[in-house]
Amino acid sequence: MNGALLEVAAISVTFDGFKAINRLSFSIGPAELRAIIGPNGAGKTTFMDIVTGKTKPDEGQVLWGEVSRNLIGMNEARIARAGIGRKFQRPTVFEDQTVFANLLMALKNTRAPLAVLFYTPKRRDVARVEDLAGEIGLAEQIRRKAGELSHGQKQWLEIGMLLAQDPKLLLVDEPAAGMTLGEREHTADLLREAAKTRAVVVVEHDMEFVRRLDCKVTVFHEGSVLAEGSLDHVTRNQDVIDVYLGR
Amino acid sequence: MRTLFRTTPSLPVFLAVLVVFTLGVTVLSEAYGIGALSTSFIKTLGKTACLALVAIAMDLVWGYTGILSLGHFAFFGLGGYMIGMWLMYARTELIVLDSLAAAPLPPTPGEISDAIAGQIFGVVGAADLPMVWMFAHSFWAQMALVVLVPGLLALVFGWLAFRSRVTGVYLSILTQAMTLALSLYLFQNDSGLRGNNGLSGLQNLPGADAIPQATVSIWFFWASALALLLTYVVAAFVVSGTFGSVIRGIRDDEARVRFLGYPVEGFKLFVFVLTAVIAALGGALYYPQAGIINPAEIAPIASIYLAVWVAIGGRGRLYGAVIGACVVSLLSTWFTGGQAPDLPLGFYTVKWVDWWQVGLGFSFVLVTLFAPKGLGGLVDLVSHRLSPNRHGAALGPDTGALREKEAEQ
Amino acid sequence: MIRRLITAALLLVLCSATAQAQDMTIQDVLQEHREALEKSSRRTIGPVIDAIADSDLPAARLVLERWRDREMWQREEDGLFFYGEPVDRSTERLFDFETGADVGVYSTRDLDQLKPNSGIQAMIAAALVTFQLDDPDPAQRRTALEAIARSGEASHLAPLRRSITKETDPVLRAEKERTERLLTITFGAADAERVAAIEHFRGSLFLDVRAALNPLIATTTVYAADLPPDANVKRRLRAGSADLPVAEAFALLVEAGLATPPPTADERKSALVARIENGQVAGIPVAALDTQEARDRAYATLAAQGDVPAWDPQFSEARAVEETPFAEVYTEPSAAVTTAAEETLRSINHTVAWNQVLDLSLDGLSLASIYFLAAIGLAITFGVMGVINMAHGEFIMMGAYTGYVVQQVIPDYTVSILVAIPLAFAVTFGAGVAMERLIIRRLYHRPLETLLATFGVSIALQQIAKNVFGTQVRPLTAPDWLDGALVLNDVVGISYIRIAIFVLALIFLGIFLFIMQKTRLGLETRAVTQNPRMAASMGINPGRVNMLTFGFGSGIAGIAGVAIGLYAKVTSELGQDYIVQSFMTVVVGGVGNIWGTLLGAGLIGFLQKGIEWFNPSNTLAAQTYMIIFIIIFIQFRPKGIIALKGRAAGD
């Protein structure tokens, strides 16, 4: 596929004899929203681990950006700086620190220790953080500690931190888990909005939520791609029905 | 500085208390005041200030960055050794020159250095000055080594440890191993640092024999207080702002910080080396007041006590470390010095010299169990600065899981 | 008396083959050396003893024995020698040596007693040894043979050889042959027989063989320009090489009278001091003599005036010995013998090296089993609960003190050890369970805090032990059957206590494997280790499992304490000495796997012994290097030798 932002080519990884990923290939364009669905153990989280550098694949390539840089061998921090942001299943924000500090830390800026030590936030940075807080609906809570937020608010804060990083690719793992209906709508809006300027990959179990995202869907099964297309297209696919309903 | 005062509310209070305390001690001292405080007590206060200083370093590395280092007293001791080498060399040189002045021929440089080596190393049966003493004649070179040697050791060790992503208790054990290796090495007679004899006579400043110890002790007290003050300011600067956010983030969730794009290893290494250097400076001020340093001072147990002070004082807050170090080390001095009155229980008399350690051990357990914020937590009670209290039991077994009330929203 | 006579008679019969014509009696021999006997000086008596011993007369042994026992008398009237038995305080009954006939009773006033001093007595005893070699009593023969083996002399060789052919006991005969060879190496007359004897000992591990061979290859370094042509040269040397430093070579030259040592710096200095006049030496003010160069100039001036011995500042020892030949020369003159000795020693050293490796491996194995015992409890608690118990060392100490207390109550060491082991387990099991319930349970998911809290317990326990038992070392005595060592040869040996500890470690490995694989507790423990949440939802009570696991781990520490106490000193700091090594064992081995702990203990035990072998004088340095090695090892295997893989190890 020409002009792909991320191209994953025939990667495999084995844990103690169990093939978690089996010659999986996947690619996504620069401003695209994509949902990944699949049963438990299909390799969705492992796929994200590989792209973000947490797990090293046994074989295959992960090519990134216009110059097709290979991401394998780079550590998590370098991959993150290259423009890939990740949101975990569980909300992981720094509960001991304020919403402001959380967002400021994530803000795309210098990352070297000494530079960070002598960094003082510019007015522009403060304004950007306040904008983001408004975008994720936490303008009121900006001085509160993240630990005092509700579960859904933490999810939004984490999405806000991702946006603050200004990544070219967003990997989002089950953003809607544990959310109320209203919160889900807000989350889906946030993701659709984000996908206008960057690539967003959402892993989700909840079909309603995926439908709400209204985007191309990739189905994973046993470590490789089973089907790809619109949600209606894949749900009519006989293989997918077999996998989900059992043969 | 104004930003620092705003982000660290404890800073002005601490500065004021320290200045008032220093002035008070000066007024009560023998050398510059009414003489209500003995010289040895002034030395104890000066040493306590140094311990508070290294406790701040420990708080930075453990309380803020989450690296439970059981090796910072090794850096403290190394700093002491480096300054001790100069003190001992310079003083021995004066003594040797003095004794050779009566000789029929004026001594040659070779004779002087041989005589110094004989004086210093006679106890371990050596007569030559080892390589490690090559800079001992120069105050400035040796002062540079106070920073360089522990800093370099911390850099190499930290680089190796953090690079291989050793964390948690593994890292603690490794730092403890490093400390043990260092102290065992120094215990050897051929380590070049006088084996288990250590360096002694450090309380005598070269060329200052005419100045009474009462005066020297108050000078060192001032120097220690100033160093403590500067350390507090530096530490406050480090933990405020984004750098502070990042290191606290590393403490709470290292992987998450990594996914934000921060080179976690670099941050850890920076804090580790910085605190090692602070600890070394503390040691360089401490041992001239103690008068003697030997390898037993850097045994692993000392570094664990350091963690105990910080834990009792309250981790993650700078004044907590200071309070912990001062309270525990002063109480220890009082109890083990035999000044505490015995406690008759009728069937048995508790002698505090014997039982203080037991009490310390168990009270430490109690603090860890029931007051994880330590003595610093008392400040919160006064200032009502309570941590987020989300009532209700956790719904899931994970930390951060949804809680009852939140789920109902 | 009668027995001695019969012995003498038997000897006579036995010796008849070699006995010469009996034209000389023992009295003749004695009379021949009468003067020396009367003077009885240690310096001159040697030939007399030899003459008597070598006379091959049947009475010779009797003479020597009586003489040694101060029962030989000389009759003043004719100077003849007899042996006497006291009748009363002042009279002796004399007997003839040759026939044993009663000569009559004499007053001691008419007799002179021969009173050999202890030095002469020892010489006589040495001579007697050769007679004892043929003694009918095998015990006597063995004693004599052992005496020869201890301090052999050239004179022993002939009688020893003679006695071999007559030896009936096969064991003794073999030993005699061996001793004969050893003596031949040192005292043999012909090179051929010495070489044969030397080569016979190829690859032998016995210390006495090396003791006999080593003097043969002893060398001295000499100035070699005028070596005698028959000198047995090992090799030529140049000064300034590693084998012959310049200073040594120069000293040899001085010794040979070929060089005069220049005045030393100290001598020159005192020469200068002696010539201070009006604050000046040789016209140079004293105050200016504060560098070596200035002093050298002053001395040169003095030397030019002829006041002091000449001294050439350009003189260098290295140049003086540069072109001079030196050689290493064997003290043993025969080249054939030294070559054979060198070769045999080489083969011996080869065998010794292999056996040292074996010995070292045994040492490493026993150290490894100690570390294994000390670390296994720690590994269990760390593996199952992720908790580092800093008080583990103090549990070991508690076990050792339990053993000590039991020995105070039960005096029988065997019984007391058998009681102490289960009791130590019970005591530390209880302590472990108490600690788990009171402290560790409240600190789950906070491993660093657990580490510190258990450290608090550790310092408290240590101080309590100090207060109760004092600071002095308390003995924990092993039963008699554990004393001593299993000695395989002169190189390889291992004490029984270490074997017992090894066996104990094996037993615990077995028990551990049994509990983990075959019992309900083991199943539950494994389940909790792998997934505590899932285990809990399947009806396993993780709290109970953790409590029992912790108690079990602590109990093993107690037993390790008894084992360690048997050979190390029991003090309140006993635990501290082992705790860091135990941590290292767990860290190196990897968490949550008994085989990892085993490998870790093995690695650390062997490593420590190996490093000590390279640098035997310095166990402190050995430990330092070992810890550095472990820190580097962690670089390459951060999770230990046996690491959990896959997603389970993710975080």
From TrEMBL, chain A:
InterPro entries: AAA+_ATPase, ABC_AA/LPS_Transport, ABC_transporter-like_ATP-bd, ABC_transptr_urea_ATP-bd_UrtD, P-loop_NTPase. Keywords: ATP-binding, Nucleotide-binding, Transport. It holds the Pfam family ABC_tran. CDD domains: ABC_Mj1267_LivG_branched (cd03219). Residues 6-247 form the ABC transporter domain. GO terms for cellular component: plasma membrane. GO terms for molecular function: ATP binding; ATP hydrolysis activity. The keyword Secreted does not apply. This is Urea ABC transporter ATP-binding protein UrtD. It comes from Roseospira marina. The gene is urtD.
UniProtKB/TrEMBL annotation, chain B:
It comes from the Bacteria. Coiled coil: none annotated. It is found in: Cell membrane. Keywords: Cell membrane, Membrane, Transmembrane, Transmembrane helix. This is Urea ABC transporter permease subunit UrtC. It is a multi-pass membrane protein. The chain crosses the membrane at residues 45-63, 70-89, 139-162, 169-187, 219-246, 267-286, 292-311, 318-335, 355-375. GO terms for molecular function: branched-chain amino acid transmembrane transporter activity. It holds the Pfam family BPD_transp_2. One of its GO terms (cellular component) is plasma membrane.
Automatic annotation (TrEMBL), chain C:
The chain crosses the membrane at residues 365-388, 417-435, 496-516, 547-567, 579-607, 619-636. The keyword Oxidoreductase does not apply. GO terms for cellular component: plasma membrane. The keyword Metal-binding does not apply. CDD domains: TM_PBP1_LivH_like. It is found in: Cell membrane. Keywords: Amino-acid transport, Cell membrane, Membrane, Signal, Transmembrane, Transmembrane helix, Transport. Residues 1-21 form the signal peptide. One of its GO terms (biological process) is amino acid transport. It is a multi-pass membrane protein. GO terms for molecular function: transmembrane transporter activity. This is Urea ABC transporter permease subunit UrtB. Belongs to the binding-protein-dependent transport system permease family. LivHM subfamily. Pfam families: BPD_transp_2.
